[in-house]
Write a structure and sequence with these properties.
InterPro entries: Beta-lactam/transpept-like, Glutaminase. It is an enzyme of class 3 (hydrolase). Its EC number is 3.5.1.2. Keywords: Acetylation, Hydrolase. By secondary structure, the chain is α+β, with helices and mostly antiparallel strands. The protein has a five-stranded antiparallel beta sheet, sandwiched between helices. Helix 2 packs across helix 3 and helix 7 crosses helix 8. The structure holds glutamine. Glutamine binds next to loops.
């Protein structure tokens, strides 16, 4: 990928200001339940933006690799919707916010399905669907599509994968309960193996911004021009990101920030300003709900400053990109 880095703009000024305001906040903790995640440098912080016109800009540590973790859930869901169809996926995983923590051991009592694909139970079910559909090729399918969305070849971090595979008893437990409830068709080990692998794919804040711009651009990567996701699948994925992407913080997020987003315990957040921008942040210290502290602060600041909330009457989105081109 060769980012088309443009001149300074309102967006860049806003990103710098958001960065400066949040940079000294050292609150929050690294995720330690996956032992390898406790080894990252806690102070890293980056904010990247990518426009649907192909412009990319970044402030801070936007080229530092980290594992995508739960952000993979949104993209895997998009792939499953496209490959298997909406009805088949809906038969296994709902689209209702759970209001529970990402790793909650709870299913929808009426349907016996996981509430949504953004919490672990739903994501493991989606990985199971992909494992069944693509067999031994499943991880390559996921990695290829994530790479196409980022506009460069991504790789998996073997050490983080092994670290989670050796310690992920709660996720294995969830998978067994899903199997027992009839939500998970695939073999438990296949579903969990794919889930742990997809979570261990390495990305940067810039990658997240470009992936977000691919979703904002209704599935076409604006840097490479390649068609990555189908329009219908993008629409459905963004809807679920909007209502469920930040776990039991999703309501607050929709209220204050107001863009579809997905966070991961690796410290990343991917946000989508529909038809305009992808936003990627990286800062590995997490709040009690498992969301990046400085990432949330940066998103709040940026969307407030630029009027990016989906229901903001001052939304300057349409003028944003042309302002940026100037
Ligand atoms: N919230 C997250 O990023 C969780 C992802 C992590 N791999 C897990 O399943 O526990």
């Amino acid at each position: 990928m060769s980012p088309n880095t443009g001149p300074a703009s309102g967006l860049e000024t806003a990103a710098r200001a958001a960065f400066e305001r949040a940079r000294d906040d050292q609150s929050g903790e690294l995720a330690t339940y996956i032992p390898e995640l406790a080894r990252v440098v806690p102070d890293r912080f980056g904010i990247a933006l990518a426009g649907v016109d192909g412009h990319v800009l970044g402030v801070g540590d936007v080229e530092v690799p980290f594992t995508i973790q739960s952000i993979s859930k949104a993209l895997a869901y998009c792939i499953a919707l496209e490959a298997l169809g909406r009805d088949k996926v809906l038969a296994h995983v709902g689209v209702e916010p759970s209001g529970d923590a990402f790793n909650a051991i709870v299913f929808d009592a009426l349907s016996n399905r996981p509430f949504n694909p953004m919490v672990n139970a739903g994501a493991i079910t989606v990985s199971g669907l992909l494992a069944e559909a693509f067999g031994a090729e499943a991880f390559d399918v996921v990695l290829d599509r994530f790479s196409a969305a980022a506009g460069r070849r991504l790789v998996m971090d073997e050490t983080v994968f092994r670290s989670e595979a050796q310690t992920g008893h709660r996720n294995r437990g969830i998978a067994h309960l899903l199997k027992c409830a009839g939500a998970l068709g695939a073999d438990v080990d296949d579903a969990v193996d794919l889930y742990f692998r997809q979570c261990s794919i390495l990305v940067t804040a810039t990658d997240l911004a470009v992936m977000g711009a691919t979703l904002a651009n209704i599935g076409e990567n604006p840097l490479t021009g390649s068609a990555v996701f189908a329009v219908e699948a993008v629409r459905n994925t963004l809807s679920v990101m909007f209502t469920c992407g930040m776990y039991d913080f999703a309501g607050n997020w929709a209220f204050d920030v107001g863009v579809p987003a997905k966070s991961g315990v690796g410290g990343g957040i991917l946000g989508v300003v529909n038809r305009q921008l992808g936003i990627g942040t990286y800062s590995p210290r997490l709040d009690a709900k498992g969301n990046s502290v400085r990432g949330i602060a940066a998103f709040r600041d940026l969307t407030e400053e630029m009027g990016l909330h989906v229901f903001d009457p001052t939304n300057r989105g349409s003028s944003l990109l042309s302002a940026y081109r100037r």
